[in-house]
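Look at a sample.

——
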Amino acid sequence: MATTTNYAWDTPDDTDLVKDGASAIRTLGSSIDSTVFGGLTQVNRNAQTGTTYTLVLADAGKIVDLNNASAITFTVPPNSSVAFPVGTRIDLIQTGAGQVTVAAGVGVTINSKGAALKITGQWSAATLIQRSANLWVLVGDIVA
């Protein structure tokens, strides 16, 4: 079957559509699935139940699930202790009643709208994004 390449997948030429239509559609669908959705993966979760937690390198790209009835301090360590690659994203979910406060380790800056560093409550979420070695942005359902 003759094909034309568009956006990294092959599409059949018009003359082939009638005789090979079903096959061409299956091939196109498979190509779109692998091209568009091939980079999507399940996000792993790190469940934490203590009243304090400090990020570790293995948390990069994960969801940190924070579950405690008491308040939780969640610390972002300095790059000298844990060297996350710039652009690292870490999602936080407060699954317990204890309010999560995100704290900056020594030399770390966490920027957020209105200096908000607390997740608003149970079943709320926030995301940390590293912009440079010791600079992070916190976005999400947060309050000061």
Q: What stands out?
A: The two ends are 61 Å apart (CA to CA).
